[in-house]
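Teaching note: in complex prediction, the entire set of molecules is handled at once rather than each chain in isolation. The prompt given to students was simply: 'Predict the structure of this complex.' The entities are:
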Amino acid sequence: MSAVAEAVGSWVKMDGMTGTAGEYRLYRELAGWWPLISPAGGYAGEAAYLAGVFRSADVPVREILDLGSGGGHVAAHLTEHFALTLVDLSAEMLAVSRQLNPGCTHRQGDMRAIRLGRLFDGVLVHDAVDYVTSEADLRQVIGTAFAHCRPGGIALFVPDYTAETFKPGSGGGGSADETGRQGSFREWTWDPDPADDWIQVEYEFVLRAADGTVQVVHEAHRLGAFSSEVWLRLLAGAGFEPEVHAGAGPPPRQDTAGEMPANLFLGHRRKCGRG
Ligand SMILES: C[S@@+](CC[C@H](N)C(=O)[O-])C[C@H]1O[C@@H](n2cnc3c(N)ncnc32)[C@H](O)[C@@H]1O
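The expected output is the structure of the full assembly:
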């Protein structure tokens, strides 16, 4: 949701609570608004880019595990080319995704700990990785990705923020459907303490039901902003050959089209005898 950020000079702390990912109202009782708040169409460009990166793996990529798949908005643009298994903590978000992606396998679970007992050609951890705010938890998520990535496969991590590139900002978005429902948000991002690994986003959601009833919800989310050094060290520590791909650099492969994410960390799980 942070694609439309712009710098602002001052901050007003809002009333919302800062909780953990499993407690945020956005992913619980407000989950049905996700398709309007952050429409799936907005993920097409980035998904196209990520598909190209998956294709650059040492093995043909057919099966992908998406950890923290949310409403399945990224996944929806990948199903034409790949078979996806979607994992999320929130039963409500999985229900939203099932509507959009009926052909995908859905599993409820925590990306820090889940073990599906099988391997995939590729693993994707898109913006759900933002909800990892400690190095210990990030190590666990990367461990989950490694445990499910077959030799020759590739894992992609797409955090919205890194310590080096974070800038306070504001933005917003939203959409309406044919029934008259409207869901929109405004966001303000700030860093309460640059010495730690997380930043804070203050959200305001304006949700208009088809009968005209409007609710306004304030909620503060705590999101990770790790340095590239932490990312690369943890990826290597898990057994991946790490690669960082930040916004200013060239595409990692010639065959990647689409919209390059602001931050992309790759983990190559090399076959035995390589790298
Ligand atoms: C911004 S949404 C993801 C949206 C998604 N990229 C999409 O395409 O719709 C973040 C998601 O991360 C999930 N999440 C946060 N922490 C998680 C964890 N530890 N394990 C699994 N899912 C988690 C939340 O439940 C939420 O659905």
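Point out the following to students. DSSP finds five helices and eleven strands in the chain. The first helix runs from residue 34 to 37.
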